[in-house]
């Protein structure tokens, strides 16, 4: 596992409860962990204002859904102020195929679209409150050895601190 210069572990996967189970954290829980949550009423106001700047009007149900969304996993590097939403998909998640591109690209675009506004919102709040967190997303396609985009998969493992090439190959 990758460490900082002082030997402290770089990445923490707080949604991993044990080796066998995990909790899918909500966007609200992630905001609390990042120190960007100051009450549900204020969060609602921040979400409304953020979307209004983009000419989007949300209902109260959509606001609740926005902060209740749950990425598959989340990783934090507190020293580097990095937060990574992790999404896991498999080829079978895409039932229809398109002539416009392959299934992996289509699925990745779908996953990126699902959390794009959330990442933008977290980065916006971080800048607004002077907390330098940078939030991004890594999508891992798993479950079909011969159809994986090997380079993309290994790049995402590097992002999360798996720097040893033998370890990446084993994964």
Number of domains: 1
Tell me the strand order in the biggest sheet. 1-2-3
Global structural class? alpha+beta
Counted beta strands:
3
Task: Summarize model confidence as the mean pLDDT.
Answer: 81
Plain-language structure description:
By secondary structure, the chain is an alpha+beta fold. It has one domain (27-170). Helix content is 42%, strand content 12%. It has six helices and three strands; from the N terminus they run H-H-H-E-E-H-E-H-H. The protein has helices at residues 27-33, 40-52, 60-68, 103-128, 150-159, 165-170; strands at 73-77, 82-89, 134-141. Strands 1-2-3 form a three-stranded mixed beta sheet, sandwiched between helices. The longest helix is centred in the C-terminal third of the chain and has 26 residues, at 103-128. The model has no long low-confidence stretch (mean pLDDT 81).
């Amino acid at each position: 596992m990758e460490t900082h210069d002082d030997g402290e572990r770089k990445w923490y996967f707080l949604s991993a409860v044990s080796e066998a189970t995990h909790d899918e954290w909500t966007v609200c829980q992630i905001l609390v962990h990042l120190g960007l949550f100051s009450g549900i009423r204020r969060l609602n106001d921040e979400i409304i204002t953020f979307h209004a700047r983009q000419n989007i009007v949300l209902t109260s149900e959509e606001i609740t859904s926005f902060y209740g969304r749950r990425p598959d996993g989340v990783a934090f590097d507190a020293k580097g102020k990095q937060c990574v939403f992790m999404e896991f998909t498999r080829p079978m998640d895409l039932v229809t195929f398109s002539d416009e591109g392959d299934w992996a690209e289509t699925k990745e675009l779908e996953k990126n679209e699902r959390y794009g506004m959330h990442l933008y919102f977290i980065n916006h709040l971080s800048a607004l409150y002077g907390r330098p967190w940078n939030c991004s997303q890594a999508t891992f396609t798993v479950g079909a050895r011969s159809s994986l985009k090997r380079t993309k998969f290994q790049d995402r493992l590097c992002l999360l601190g798996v720097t040893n090439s033998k370890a990446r190959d084993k994964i």
